[in-house]
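Bench notes, afternoon.
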Amino acid sequence: MRAQKGNVLLDFSVITLVVMVVVGIAISGLVTAKLNQHVWLLKAYDAAMRPDAPKGTDPFSVPHIRENFRALLWITYGSVGAGFVILYISLISVVRRTSRTISRQRADLETANADLRAANEKMAPILNSAGEGICGLDVQGIIAFANPAAATLTGWRVEDLIGRSHHDLLHHTKADGTPYRKEECPVHEVLNQGAAQQVDNEVFWRKDGTSFPVEYICTPLREGGTIVGAVVTFEDITQRKQAEKALRESEMRFRSVAQWANDAIISADANGCIILWNRGAETIFGYGEEEVLGAPLTFLLSERYRNVHKVGFLGKTVELEGLRKDGSEFPLELSLATWTAGDELFYTAIIRDITERRQADANLKQAHAELHALQLQLIQAEKMESVGTLAAGIAHEVKNPLSIVLMGVNYLSGLLPNTDDTARGVLEDMEKAVGRATSVIRGLLDFSAASVLSLNPEDLNFVVQQSLLLVKHEVDRSHVRVAQELAEDLPPVTVDKGKIEQVFVNIFMNAIHAMPGGGTLTIRTYATQLREGGQSVGSRKADQFRVGDTVVVAEVDDTGTGIPGHQITKIYDPFFTTKPTGKGTGLGLAVTSKIVALHGGTMDIRNRKEGGVLVTIMLKSQARGSR
Protein backbone atom coordinates (compact mmCIF):
# COMPACT_ATOMS: atom_id res chain seq x y z
CA MET A 1 0.00 0.00 0.00
CA ARG A 2 2.86 2.35 0.89
CA ALA A 3 4.60 1.60 -2.36
CA GLN A 4 1.42 2.39 -4.24
CA LYS A 5 1.10 5.73 -2.35
CA GLY A 6 4.72 6.63 -3.15
CA ASN A 7 4.14 5.89 -6.80
CA VAL A 8 1.12 8.22 -6.83
CA LEU A 9 3.16 11.07 -5.28
CA LEU A 10 5.96 10.52 -7.76
CA ASP A 11 3.49 10.65 -10.63
CA PHE A 12 2.04 13.91 -9.20
CA SER A 13 5.50 15.54 -9.07
CA VAL A 14 6.17 14.61 -12.66
CA ILE A 15 2.84 16.11 -13.68
CA THR A 16 3.72 19.35 -11.81
CA LEU A 17 7.06 19.52 -13.61
CA VAL A 18 5.37 19.05 -16.93
CA VAL A 19 2.91 21.84 -16.09
CA MET A 20 5.78 24.23 -15.25
CA VAL A 21 7.55 23.47 -18.49
CA VAL A 22 4.35 24.09 -20.39
CA VAL A 23 3.97 27.47 -18.62
CA GLY A 24 7.57 28.39 -19.55
CA ILE A 25 6.89 27.50 -23.16
CA ALA A 26 3.78 29.64 -23.08
CA ILE A 27 5.72 32.67 -21.82
CA SER A 28 8.32 32.12 -24.53
CA GLY A 29 5.47 32.15 -27.02
CA LEU A 30 4.24 35.51 -25.70
CA VAL A 31 7.75 36.93 -26.08
CA THR A 32 7.93 35.70 -29.65
CA ALA A 33 4.62 37.32 -30.43
CA LYS A 34 5.83 40.61 -28.98
CA LEU A 35 8.91 40.45 -31.12
CA ASN A 36 6.77 39.85 -34.18
CA GLN A 37 4.84 43.02 -33.35
CA HIS A 38 8.09 45.08 -33.39
CA VAL A 39 9.62 43.43 -36.44
CA TRP A 40 10.10 46.89 -37.95
CA LEU A 41 12.61 47.63 -35.26
CA LEU A 42 14.59 44.64 -36.33
CA LYS A 43 14.41 45.63 -39.95
CA ALA A 44 15.61 49.18 -39.14
CA TYR A 45 18.36 47.80 -37.15
CA ASP A 46 19.32 45.54 -40.02
CA ALA A 47 19.30 48.53 -42.42
CA ALA A 48 21.53 50.55 -40.14
CA MET A 49 23.89 47.73 -39.88
CA ARG A 50 24.19 47.13 -43.62
CA PRO A 51 27.56 47.98 -45.29
CA ASP A 52 26.04 50.52 -47.67
CA ALA A 53 24.40 52.44 -44.81
CA PRO A 54 25.64 56.08 -44.39
CA LYS A 55 28.57 56.24 -42.12
CA GLY A 56 27.92 57.37 -38.64
CA THR A 57 24.43 55.95 -38.71
CA ASP A 58 23.60 54.62 -35.24
CA PRO A 59 20.85 51.95 -35.21
CA PHE A 60 19.81 53.16 -31.84
CA SER A 61 20.28 56.87 -32.56
CA VAL A 62 16.66 57.36 -33.14
CA PRO A 63 15.22 57.79 -29.73
CA HIS A 64 11.98 56.04 -30.57
CA ILE A 65 13.79 53.02 -31.83
CA ARG A 66 16.06 52.97 -28.83
CA GLU A 67 13.19 53.24 -26.45
CA ASN A 68 11.24 50.45 -28.04
CA PHE A 69 14.23 48.19 -28.31
CA ARG A 70 15.09 48.77 -24.66
CA ALA A 71 11.57 47.93 -23.75
CA LEU A 72 11.77 44.87 -25.89
CA LEU A 73 14.94 43.74 -24.18
CA TRP A 74 13.42 44.30 -20.77
CA ILE A 75 10.37 42.33 -21.76
CA THR A 76 12.52 39.55 -23.19
CA TYR A 77 14.86 39.38 -20.21
CA GLY A 78 11.98 39.61 -17.84
CA SER A 79 10.05 36.82 -19.54
CA VAL A 80 13.06 34.54 -19.67
CA GLY A 81 13.95 35.27 -16.08
CA ALA A 82 10.41 34.67 -14.96
CA GLY A 83 10.42 31.39 -16.84
CA PHE A 84 13.63 30.34 -15.18
CA VAL A 85 12.36 31.33 -11.78
CA ILE A 86 9.17 29.40 -12.28
CA LEU A 87 11.12 26.42 -13.64
CA TYR A 88 13.53 26.54 -10.67
CA ILE A 89 10.67 26.70 -8.19
CA SER A 90 8.98 23.76 -9.95
CA LEU A 91 12.17 21.73 -9.93
CA ILE A 92 12.72 22.40 -6.23
CA SER A 93 9.15 21.29 -5.54
CA VAL A 94 9.55 18.16 -7.63
CA VAL A 95 12.86 17.28 -6.00
CA ARG A 96 11.42 17.71 -2.52
CA ARG A 97 8.38 15.63 -3.30
CA THR A 98 10.50 12.99 -5.03
CA SER A 99 12.85 12.87 -2.04
CA ARG A 100 9.96 12.39 0.32
CA THR A 101 8.54 9.68 -1.97
CA ILE A 102 11.89 7.90 -2.17
CA SER A 103 12.23 8.05 1.59
CA ARG A 104 8.80 6.57 2.06
CA GLN A 105 9.53 3.87 -0.58
CA ARG A 106 12.89 3.11 1.11
CA ALA A 107 11.08 2.67 4.42
CA ASP A 108 8.47 0.50 2.74
CA LEU A 109 11.23 -1.55 1.07
CA GLU A 110 13.03 -2.04 4.36
CA THR A 111 9.78 -3.14 5.96
CA ALA A 112 9.11 -5.55 3.07
CA ASN A 113 12.67 -6.87 3.33
CA ALA A 114 12.21 -7.38 7.05
CA ASP A 115 8.96 -9.26 6.39
CA LEU A 116 10.69 -11.31 3.70
CA ARG A 117 13.59 -12.13 6.06
CA ALA A 118 11.10 -13.17 8.72
CA ALA A 119 9.25 -15.34 6.23
CA ASN A 120 12.53 -16.85 5.05
CA GLU A 121 13.53 -17.53 8.64
CA LYS A 122 10.25 -19.40 9.09
CA MET A 123 10.43 -21.25 5.77
CA ALA A 124 14.12 -22.06 5.83
CA PRO A 125 13.85 -24.79 8.53
CA ILE A 126 10.98 -26.35 6.62
CA LEU A 127 12.79 -26.31 3.30
CA ASN A 128 16.08 -27.39 4.85
CA SER A 129 14.47 -30.29 6.69
CA ALA A 130 12.48 -31.52 3.68
CA GLY A 131 13.55 -34.91 2.43
CA GLU A 132 12.69 -33.98 -1.15
CA GLY A 133 14.97 -31.82 -3.20
CA ILE A 134 13.50 -28.38 -3.91
CA CYS A 135 14.80 -25.97 -6.54
CA GLY A 136 13.36 -22.54 -7.33
CA LEU A 137 13.86 -21.50 -10.97
CA ASP A 138 13.52 -18.16 -12.69
CA VAL A 139 11.73 -17.80 -15.99
CA GLN A 140 14.92 -18.78 -17.85
CA GLY A 141 15.21 -22.04 -15.89
CA ILE A 142 18.15 -20.77 -13.80
CA ILE A 143 18.29 -22.12 -10.26
CA ALA A 144 17.64 -19.27 -7.84
CA PHE A 145 17.12 -21.38 -4.73
CA ALA A 146 18.04 -24.93 -3.69
CA ASN A 147 17.57 -26.69 -0.37
CA PRO A 148 20.16 -29.03 1.26
CA ALA A 149 18.22 -32.14 0.13
CA ALA A 150 18.65 -31.04 -3.48
CA ALA A 151 22.39 -30.74 -2.89
CA THR A 152 22.56 -34.14 -1.17
CA LEU A 153 20.61 -35.91 -3.92
CA THR A 154 22.65 -34.40 -6.77
CA GLY A 155 26.09 -34.28 -5.16
CA TRP A 156 26.46 -30.53 -5.73
CA ARG A 157 26.80 -27.87 -3.05
CA VAL A 158 23.91 -25.47 -2.67
CA GLU A 159 26.05 -22.51 -3.79
CA ASP A 160 27.16 -24.50 -6.85
CA LEU A 161 23.57 -25.12 -7.87
CA ILE A 162 22.42 -21.51 -7.61
CA GLY A 163 22.89 -19.57 -10.82
CA ARG A 164 23.18 -22.69 -12.99
CA SER A 165 20.70 -23.95 -15.59
CA HIS A 166 18.55 -26.65 -14.05
CA HIS A 167 18.23 -28.50 -17.34
CA ASP A 168 21.90 -28.27 -18.33
CA LEU A 169 23.10 -29.31 -14.90
CA LEU A 170 20.63 -32.04 -13.81
CA HIS A 171 18.38 -32.99 -16.72
CA HIS A 172 20.53 -32.94 -19.84
CA THR A 173 20.41 -36.64 -20.79
CA LYS A 174 17.72 -39.31 -20.90
CA ALA A 175 17.94 -42.64 -19.07
CA ASP A 176 19.06 -44.42 -22.24
CA GLY A 177 21.98 -42.00 -22.67
CA THR A 178 20.53 -39.93 -25.52
CA PRO A 179 20.59 -36.12 -25.21
CA TYR A 180 17.48 -34.51 -23.73
CA ARG A 181 16.55 -31.41 -25.74
CA LYS A 182 15.41 -28.54 -23.55
CA GLU A 183 12.36 -27.99 -25.74
CA GLU A 184 11.18 -31.49 -24.90
CA CYS A 185 11.70 -31.10 -21.15
CA PRO A 186 8.52 -30.91 -19.00
CA VAL A 187 10.16 -28.16 -16.88
CA HIS A 188 10.60 -26.06 -19.99
CA GLU A 189 6.95 -26.66 -20.85
CA VAL A 190 5.88 -25.46 -17.39
CA LEU A 191 7.92 -22.25 -17.76
CA ASN A 192 6.36 -21.60 -21.16
CA GLN A 193 2.85 -23.01 -20.86
CA GLY A 194 2.17 -22.66 -17.14
CA ALA A 195 0.62 -26.13 -16.63
CA ALA A 196 2.03 -28.11 -13.69
CA GLN A 197 3.73 -31.43 -14.54
CA GLN A 198 4.30 -34.62 -12.56
CA VAL A 199 6.86 -37.08 -13.96
CA ASP A 200 8.07 -40.44 -12.56
CA ASN A 201 9.82 -42.08 -15.49
CA GLU A 202 12.92 -39.91 -15.98
CA VAL A 203 16.34 -39.53 -14.38
CA PHE A 204 18.40 -36.67 -12.91
CA TRP A 205 22.20 -36.63 -13.11
CA ARG A 206 24.60 -36.28 -10.21
CA LYS A 207 27.84 -34.35 -10.11
CA ASP A 208 29.83 -37.61 -10.44
CA GLY A 209 28.08 -38.42 -13.73
CA THR A 210 25.77 -41.12 -12.40
CA SER A 211 22.02 -40.96 -12.78
CA PHE A 212 19.16 -41.89 -10.49
CA PRO A 213 15.45 -42.47 -11.20
CA VAL A 214 13.45 -39.52 -10.06
CA GLU A 215 9.88 -38.44 -9.52
CA TYR A 216 9.40 -34.70 -9.71
CA ILE A 217 6.62 -32.14 -9.68
CA CYS A 218 7.15 -28.81 -11.45
CA THR A 219 4.75 -25.99 -10.50
CA PRO A 220 4.76 -22.52 -12.13
CA LEU A 221 5.18 -19.26 -10.13
CA ARG A 222 3.09 -16.27 -11.19
CA GLU A 223 2.97 -12.56 -10.39
CA GLY A 224 -0.03 -10.67 -11.63
CA GLY A 225 -0.86 -13.53 -13.98
CA THR A 226 2.64 -13.58 -15.50
CA ILE A 227 4.92 -16.65 -15.16
CA VAL A 228 8.05 -15.53 -13.32
CA GLY A 229 9.54 -18.94 -12.53
CA ALA A 230 8.83 -22.43 -11.26
CA VAL A 231 9.45 -24.72 -8.29
CA VAL A 232 10.78 -28.24 -8.91
CA THR A 233 10.29 -30.74 -6.07
CA PHE A 234 11.98 -34.09 -6.65
CA GLU A 235 12.92 -37.32 -4.86
CA ASP A 236 15.14 -40.32 -5.56
CA ILE A 237 12.87 -43.31 -6.27
CA THR A 238 15.62 -45.90 -6.71
CA GLN A 239 14.26 -48.07 -3.88
CA ARG A 240 10.72 -47.78 -5.22
CA LYS A 241 11.87 -48.79 -8.69
CA GLN A 242 13.81 -51.73 -7.22
CA ALA A 243 10.73 -52.74 -5.23
CA GLU A 244 8.56 -52.45 -8.35
CA LYS A 245 11.06 -54.55 -10.29
CA ALA A 246 11.16 -57.15 -7.52
CA LEU A 247 7.37 -57.14 -7.44
CA ARG A 248 7.19 -57.64 -11.20
CA GLU A 249 9.74 -60.45 -11.03
CA SER A 250 7.86 -62.00 -8.12
CA GLU A 251 4.61 -61.73 -10.04
CA MET A 252 6.25 -63.30 -13.09
CA ARG A 253 7.60 -66.15 -10.96
CA PHE A 254 4.20 -66.59 -9.35
CA ARG A 255 2.48 -66.63 -12.73
CA SER A 256 5.06 -69.09 -14.05
CA VAL A 257 4.64 -71.40 -11.06
CA ALA A 258 0.88 -70.95 -11.10
CA GLN A 259 0.58 -71.64 -14.80
CA TRP A 260 2.59 -74.86 -14.67
CA ALA A 261 1.30 -76.18 -11.35
CA ASN A 262 -0.68 -79.42 -11.49
CA ASP A 263 -3.15 -78.02 -8.98
CA ALA A 264 -5.79 -75.52 -10.04
CA ILE A 265 -4.90 -71.98 -8.90
CA ILE A 266 -7.84 -69.64 -9.30
CA SER A 267 -8.19 -66.02 -8.12
CA ALA A 268 -11.44 -64.09 -7.82
CA ASP A 269 -12.40 -60.53 -6.93
CA ALA A 270 -14.51 -59.44 -3.96
CA ASN A 271 -17.67 -60.44 -5.85
CA GLY A 272 -16.36 -63.97 -6.42
CA CYS A 273 -15.78 -63.45 -10.16
CA ILE A 274 -12.79 -65.30 -11.62
CA ILE A 275 -9.81 -63.11 -12.64
CA LEU A 276 -6.99 -65.72 -12.78
CA TRP A 277 -7.14 -69.22 -14.28
CA ASN A 278 -4.06 -71.43 -14.67
CA ARG A 279 -3.38 -74.48 -16.83
CA GLY A 280 -3.93 -76.81 -13.88
CA ALA A 281 -7.49 -75.47 -13.57
CA GLU A 282 -7.99 -75.98 -17.30
CA THR A 283 -6.81 -79.59 -17.00
CA ILE A 284 -8.94 -80.37 -13.95
CA PHE A 285 -12.18 -78.65 -14.96
CA GLY A 286 -11.93 -78.72 -18.76
CA TYR A 287 -12.64 -75.00 -19.30
CA GLY A 288 -10.36 -72.64 -21.22
CA GLU A 289 -9.37 -69.34 -19.62
CA GLU A 290 -11.55 -67.29 -21.97
CA GLU A 291 -14.58 -69.35 -20.94
CA VAL A 292 -14.36 -68.65 -17.20
CA LEU A 293 -12.94 -65.13 -16.74
CA GLY A 294 -15.66 -63.07 -15.07
CA ALA A 295 -17.73 -66.14 -14.18
CA PRO A 296 -18.60 -66.86 -10.52
CA LEU A 297 -16.19 -69.17 -8.73
CA THR A 298 -19.05 -71.22 -7.29
CA PHE A 299 -20.13 -72.56 -10.68
CA LEU A 300 -17.16 -74.96 -10.45
CA LEU A 301 -18.74 -76.67 -7.44
CA SER A 302 -21.52 -79.21 -7.25
CA GLU A 303 -25.03 -77.74 -6.85
CA ARG A 304 -25.27 -78.70 -3.18
CA TYR A 305 -22.24 -76.55 -2.28
CA ARG A 306 -23.07 -73.37 -4.21
CA ASN A 307 -25.09 -71.77 -1.41
CA VAL A 308 -22.39 -72.36 1.22
CA HIS A 309 -20.77 -68.99 2.05
CA LYS A 310 -17.11 -68.84 1.10
CA VAL A 311 -16.19 -67.33 4.49
CA GLY A 312 -16.77 -70.76 5.99
CA PHE A 313 -13.91 -72.11 3.86
CA LEU A 314 -11.32 -69.41 4.68
CA GLY A 315 -8.13 -70.70 6.28
CA LYS A 316 -9.29 -74.31 5.99
CA THR A 317 -8.69 -77.24 3.70
CA VAL A 318 -11.98 -78.89 2.87
CA GLU A 319 -13.08 -81.71 0.62
CA LEU A 320 -15.98 -80.98 -1.71
CA GLU A 321 -17.41 -82.21 -4.98
CA GLY A 322 -16.39 -80.30 -8.13
CA LEU A 323 -18.20 -80.06 -11.45
CA ARG A 324 -16.34 -80.48 -14.72
CA LYS A 325 -17.27 -78.96 -18.06
CA ASP A 326 -18.73 -82.29 -19.20
CA GLY A 327 -21.08 -82.30 -16.20
CA SER A 328 -19.29 -85.04 -14.28
CA GLU A 329 -18.64 -84.60 -10.57
CA PHE A 330 -15.35 -85.42 -8.90
CA PRO A 331 -13.87 -85.13 -5.39
CA LEU A 332 -11.64 -82.12 -4.82
CA GLU A 333 -9.62 -80.56 -2.02
CA LEU A 334 -10.06 -76.79 -1.64
CA SER A 335 -7.84 -74.30 0.21
CA LEU A 336 -9.16 -70.70 0.15
CA ALA A 337 -7.26 -67.57 1.21
CA THR A 338 -7.76 -63.81 0.91
CA TRP A 339 -5.41 -60.99 -0.04
CA THR A 340 -5.70 -57.27 -0.67
CA ALA A 341 -4.37 -54.85 -3.28
CA GLY A 342 -4.98 -51.29 -2.14
CA ASP A 343 -8.50 -51.19 -0.80
CA GLU A 344 -9.69 -54.15 -2.89
CA LEU A 345 -10.21 -57.68 -1.53
CA PHE A 346 -9.39 -60.78 -3.56
CA TYR A 347 -9.67 -64.55 -3.08
CA THR A 348 -7.28 -67.27 -4.24
CA ALA A 349 -8.32 -70.92 -4.28
CA ILE A 350 -5.94 -73.86 -4.65
CA ILE A 351 -7.89 -76.88 -5.83
CA ARG A 352 -6.59 -80.43 -6.11
CA ASP A 353 -8.31 -83.32 -7.84
CA ILE A 354 -8.27 -86.09 -5.23
CA THR A 355 -9.91 -88.77 -7.35
CA GLU A 356 -6.75 -90.89 -7.32
CA ARG A 357 -6.28 -90.31 -3.59
CA ARG A 358 -9.84 -91.39 -2.92
CA GLN A 359 -9.22 -94.48 -5.01
CA ALA A 360 -5.96 -95.10 -3.14
CA ASP A 361 -7.82 -94.70 0.15
CA ALA A 362 -10.41 -97.18 -1.04
CA ASN A 363 -7.66 -99.59 -2.09
CA LEU A 364 -5.97 -99.11 1.26
CA LYS A 365 -9.21 -99.83 3.06
CA GLN A 366 -9.68 -102.89 0.91
CA ALA A 367 -6.12 -103.99 1.61
CA HIS A 368 -6.72 -103.41 5.30
CA ALA A 369 -9.88 -105.49 5.09
CA GLU A 370 -7.98 -108.22 3.26
CA LEU A 371 -5.24 -108.07 5.86
CA HIS A 372 -7.85 -108.32 8.58
CA ALA A 373 -9.36 -111.30 6.78
CA LEU A 374 -5.93 -112.91 6.52
CA GLN A 375 -5.39 -112.32 10.21
CA LEU A 376 -8.72 -113.96 10.91
CA GLN A 377 -7.74 -116.82 8.63
CA LEU A 378 -4.46 -117.18 10.49
CA ILE A 379 -6.29 -117.19 13.80
CA GLN A 380 -8.76 -119.66 12.34
CA ALA A 381 -5.94 -121.87 11.05
CA GLU A 382 -4.25 -121.84 14.43
CA LYS A 383 -7.57 -122.62 16.10
CA MET A 384 -8.26 -125.39 13.60
CA GLU A 385 -4.83 -126.84 14.20
CA SER A 386 -5.49 -126.87 17.93
CA VAL A 387 -8.94 -128.36 17.40
CA GLY A 388 -7.51 -130.94 15.04
CA THR A 389 -4.95 -132.05 17.59
CA LEU A 390 -7.63 -132.26 20.25
CA ALA A 391 -10.07 -133.99 17.90
CA ALA A 392 -7.59 -136.68 16.98
CA GLY A 393 -7.11 -137.62 20.60
CA ILE A 394 -10.82 -137.56 21.32
CA ALA A 395 -11.63 -139.60 18.21
CA HIS A 396 -9.27 -142.36 19.19
CA GLU A 397 -10.55 -142.43 22.74
CA VAL A 398 -14.22 -142.54 21.65
CA LYS A 399 -13.92 -144.78 18.61
CA ASN A 400 -13.16 -148.00 20.49
CA PRO A 401 -15.99 -147.63 23.04
CA LEU A 402 -18.44 -146.89 20.24
CA SER A 403 -17.32 -150.05 18.44
CA ILE A 404 -18.03 -152.09 21.59
CA VAL A 405 -21.44 -150.40 21.98
CA LEU A 406 -22.28 -151.18 18.35
CA MET A 407 -21.24 -154.83 18.84
CA GLY A 408 -23.43 -155.02 21.91
CA VAL A 409 -26.41 -153.61 20.02
CA ASN A 410 -25.94 -156.11 17.25
CA TYR A 411 -25.65 -158.94 19.79
CA LEU A 412 -28.80 -157.94 21.63
CA SER A 413 -30.67 -157.60 18.35
CA GLY A 414 -29.92 -161.27 17.61
CA LEU A 415 -31.22 -162.42 21.02
CA LEU A 416 -34.52 -160.54 20.97
CA PRO A 417 -37.58 -162.36 19.66
CA ASN A 418 -39.14 -160.90 16.55
CA THR A 419 -42.33 -160.21 18.46
CA ASP A 420 -40.72 -157.65 20.80
CA ASP A 421 -41.05 -154.59 18.60
CA THR A 422 -40.43 -152.15 21.43
CA ALA A 423 -37.07 -153.55 22.39
CA ARG A 424 -36.07 -153.91 18.74
CA GLY A 425 -36.97 -150.19 18.12
CA VAL A 426 -34.79 -149.12 21.02
CA LEU A 427 -31.90 -151.11 19.68
CA GLU A 428 -32.37 -149.57 16.22
CA ASP A 429 -32.29 -146.06 17.73
CA MET A 430 -29.13 -146.97 19.58
CA GLU A 431 -27.58 -148.26 16.36
CA LYS A 432 -28.42 -144.99 14.51
CA ALA A 433 -27.00 -142.93 17.35
CA VAL A 434 -23.81 -144.94 17.31
CA GLY A 435 -23.71 -144.46 13.50
CA ARG A 436 -23.96 -140.67 13.86
CA ALA A 437 -21.28 -140.72 16.52
CA THR A 438 -19.12 -142.84 14.24
CA SER A 439 -19.66 -140.30 11.43
CA VAL A 440 -18.50 -137.50 13.71
CA ILE A 441 -15.47 -139.53 14.72
CA ARG A 442 -14.67 -140.18 11.05
CA GLY A 443 -14.94 -136.42 10.33
CA LEU A 444 -12.66 -135.64 13.24
CA LEU A 445 -10.13 -138.12 11.96
CA ASP A 446 -10.33 -136.67 8.45
CA PHE A 447 -9.94 -133.15 9.91
CA SER A 448 -6.92 -134.08 11.95
CA ALA A 449 -5.34 -136.48 9.45
CA ALA A 450 -1.83 -135.80 8.20
CA SER A 451 -1.64 -133.62 5.05
CA VAL A 452 -0.65 -136.41 2.72
CA LEU A 453 -2.19 -136.18 -0.76
CA SER A 454 -2.01 -138.42 -3.79
CA LEU A 455 -1.65 -135.76 -6.50
CA ASN A 456 -2.22 -136.45 -10.17
CA PRO A 457 -3.25 -134.37 -13.20
CA GLU A 458 -7.04 -134.57 -13.42
CA ASP A 459 -9.84 -133.17 -15.55
CA LEU A 460 -11.91 -131.05 -13.16
CA ASN A 461 -15.05 -131.54 -15.26
CA PHE A 462 -14.76 -135.32 -14.78
CA VAL A 463 -14.29 -134.89 -11.01
CA VAL A 464 -17.44 -132.69 -10.85
CA GLN A 465 -19.51 -135.22 -12.80
CA GLN A 466 -18.34 -138.11 -10.61
CA SER A 467 -19.27 -136.13 -7.50
CA LEU A 468 -22.76 -135.45 -8.91
CA LEU A 469 -23.26 -139.20 -9.34
CA LEU A 470 -22.52 -139.70 -5.64
CA VAL A 471 -25.35 -137.28 -4.63
CA LYS A 472 -27.81 -138.25 -7.37
CA HIS A 473 -30.15 -139.96 -4.90
CA GLU A 474 -30.36 -136.82 -2.71
CA VAL A 475 -30.84 -134.62 -5.80
CA ASP A 476 -33.76 -136.70 -7.03
CA ARG A 477 -35.34 -137.05 -3.60
CA SER A 478 -35.20 -133.26 -3.00
CA HIS A 479 -36.53 -132.39 -6.49
CA VAL A 480 -33.49 -130.27 -7.26
CA ARG A 481 -32.67 -129.46 -10.88
CA VAL A 482 -28.97 -129.59 -11.82
CA ALA A 483 -27.58 -127.22 -14.46
CA GLN A 484 -24.09 -127.91 -15.75
CA GLU A 485 -22.11 -125.14 -17.52
CA LEU A 486 -18.81 -126.92 -17.93
CA ALA A 487 -16.20 -125.30 -20.17
CA GLU A 488 -14.70 -127.49 -22.84
CA ASP A 489 -11.00 -128.19 -23.14
CA LEU A 490 -10.12 -127.20 -19.58
CA PRO A 491 -6.43 -127.43 -18.70
CA PRO A 492 -5.73 -130.21 -16.18
CA VAL A 493 -5.32 -129.53 -12.46
CA THR A 494 -3.01 -131.41 -10.09
CA VAL A 495 -5.24 -132.77 -7.33
CA ASP A 496 -6.02 -135.76 -5.12
CA LYS A 497 -9.12 -136.94 -6.96
CA GLY A 498 -10.72 -138.57 -3.89
CA LYS A 499 -10.21 -135.51 -1.69
CA ILE A 500 -11.58 -133.10 -4.32
CA GLU A 501 -14.61 -135.34 -4.81
CA GLN A 502 -15.16 -135.13 -1.05
CA VAL A 503 -15.06 -131.32 -1.37
CA PHE A 504 -17.68 -131.20 -4.13
CA VAL A 505 -19.93 -133.78 -2.42
CA ASN A 506 -19.96 -131.69 0.76
CA ILE A 507 -20.73 -128.50 -1.18
CA PHE A 508 -23.47 -130.22 -3.20
CA MET A 509 -25.08 -131.68 -0.07
CA ASN A 510 -25.06 -128.29 1.67
CA ALA A 511 -26.77 -126.75 -1.36
CA ILE A 512 -29.38 -129.53 -1.53
CA HIS A 513 -30.17 -129.21 2.20
CA ALA A 514 -30.60 -125.40 1.69
CA MET A 515 -33.37 -126.12 -0.90
CA PRO A 516 -35.84 -128.41 0.98
CA GLY A 517 -38.63 -127.44 -1.38
CA GLY A 518 -36.58 -127.88 -4.52
CA GLY A 519 -34.58 -125.43 -6.59
CA THR A 520 -31.70 -125.21 -9.02
CA LEU A 521 -28.13 -126.30 -8.44
CA THR A 522 -25.78 -124.76 -11.02
CA ILE A 523 -22.20 -125.90 -11.57
CA ARG A 524 -19.93 -124.01 -13.98
CA THR A 525 -16.25 -124.36 -14.76
CA TYR A 526 -13.86 -122.18 -16.76
CA ALA A 527 -10.20 -121.26 -17.08
CA THR A 528 -8.87 -117.69 -16.82
CA GLN A 529 -5.63 -115.76 -16.54
CA LEU A 530 -5.25 -113.51 -13.50
CA ARG A 531 -4.61 -109.93 -14.71
CA GLU A 532 -4.75 -107.94 -11.48
CA GLY A 533 -4.04 -108.42 -7.81
CA GLY A 534 -6.68 -109.19 -5.24
CA GLN A 535 -7.34 -111.39 -2.27
CA SER A 536 -4.81 -114.27 -2.38
CA VAL A 537 -3.45 -112.80 -5.66
CA GLY A 538 -0.24 -110.75 -5.56
CA SER A 539 3.50 -110.89 -5.09
CA ARG A 540 3.68 -111.88 -1.44
CA LYS A 541 4.86 -115.29 -0.35
CA ALA A 542 1.55 -115.81 1.43
CA ASP A 543 -0.40 -115.33 -1.79
CA GLN A 544 -1.49 -118.57 -3.42
CA PHE A 545 -1.47 -117.07 -6.92
CA ARG A 546 0.52 -114.54 -8.94
CA VAL A 547 -0.70 -112.07 -11.52
CA GLY A 548 -0.43 -113.86 -14.88
CA ASP A 549 -1.19 -117.35 -13.52
CA THR A 550 -3.74 -119.47 -15.37
CA VAL A 551 -6.31 -120.93 -13.00
CA VAL A 552 -9.28 -123.28 -13.26
CA VAL A 553 -12.40 -122.05 -11.48
CA ALA A 554 -15.41 -124.08 -10.34
CA GLU A 555 -18.52 -122.16 -9.23
CA VAL A 556 -21.43 -123.81 -7.43
CA ASP A 557 -24.56 -121.77 -6.69
CA ASP A 558 -28.01 -122.62 -5.44
CA THR A 559 -31.38 -120.91 -5.09
CA GLY A 560 -31.76 -121.74 -1.44
CA THR A 561 -32.20 -119.64 1.68
CA GLY A 562 -28.62 -118.39 1.91
CA ILE A 563 -26.54 -117.89 5.07
CA PRO A 564 -27.52 -115.28 7.68
CA GLY A 565 -25.11 -112.32 7.48
CA HIS A 566 -24.07 -112.51 11.11
CA GLN A 567 -23.13 -116.20 10.71
CA ILE A 568 -21.18 -116.15 7.44
CA THR A 569 -17.86 -115.49 9.20
CA LYS A 570 -18.34 -118.60 11.38
CA ILE A 571 -19.06 -121.18 8.70
CA TYR A 572 -15.53 -122.59 8.75
CA ASP A 573 -15.52 -123.08 12.53
CA PRO A 574 -15.51 -126.75 13.59
CA PHE A 575 -18.91 -128.01 14.82
CA PHE A 576 -20.69 -124.84 13.61
CA THR A 577 -23.69 -125.57 11.40
CA THR A 578 -26.77 -123.75 10.14
CA LYS A 579 -28.63 -127.05 9.68
CA PRO A 580 -31.22 -128.41 12.12
CA THR A 581 -30.02 -130.70 14.87
CA GLY A 582 -29.12 -134.13 13.54
CA LYS A 583 -28.70 -132.88 9.95
CA GLY A 584 -25.01 -131.97 10.13
CA THR A 585 -21.90 -132.39 12.23
CA GLY A 586 -20.46 -128.90 11.64
CA LEU A 587 -17.23 -130.34 10.28
CA GLY A 588 -18.03 -130.38 6.54
CA LEU A 589 -16.83 -126.90 5.52
CA ALA A 590 -13.94 -126.97 7.97
CA VAL A 591 -12.65 -130.15 6.34
CA THR A 592 -13.49 -128.91 2.83
CA SER A 593 -11.60 -125.61 3.20
CA LYS A 594 -8.62 -127.50 4.61
CA ILE A 595 -8.55 -129.87 1.62
CA VAL A 596 -8.68 -126.98 -0.87
CA ALA A 597 -5.90 -125.15 1.01
CA LEU A 598 -3.75 -128.31 0.90
CA HIS A 599 -4.09 -128.22 -2.90
CA GLY A 600 -2.80 -124.61 -2.98
CA GLY A 601 -6.23 -123.31 -3.95
CA THR A 602 -8.83 -120.99 -2.49
CA MET A 603 -12.49 -121.34 -1.61
CA ASP A 604 -14.85 -118.38 -1.26
CA ILE A 605 -18.42 -118.57 0.02
CA ARG A 606 -20.81 -115.64 -0.17
CA ASN A 607 -24.52 -114.93 -0.51
CA ARG A 608 -25.92 -114.14 -3.93
CA LYS A 609 -27.94 -110.94 -4.49
CA GLU A 610 -30.63 -113.05 -6.17
CA GLY A 611 -30.78 -115.37 -3.16
CA GLY A 612 -28.88 -118.53 -2.30
CA VAL A 613 -25.16 -119.09 -1.94
CA LEU A 614 -22.26 -118.98 -4.39
CA VAL A 615 -19.21 -121.15 -3.69
CA THR A 616 -16.09 -120.44 -5.78
CA ILE A 617 -13.13 -122.83 -5.84
CA MET A 618 -9.98 -121.74 -7.65
CA LEU A 619 -7.11 -124.14 -8.41
CA LYS A 620 -3.90 -123.48 -10.29
CA SER A 621 -3.82 -125.22 -13.66
CA GLN A 622 -1.07 -127.46 -14.94
CA ALA A 623 0.55 -126.80 -18.29
CA ARG A 624 -0.47 -129.36 -20.84
CA GLY A 625 2.08 -132.12 -21.33
CA SER A 626 3.80 -131.53 -17.95
CA ARG A 627 3.80 -134.11 -15.20
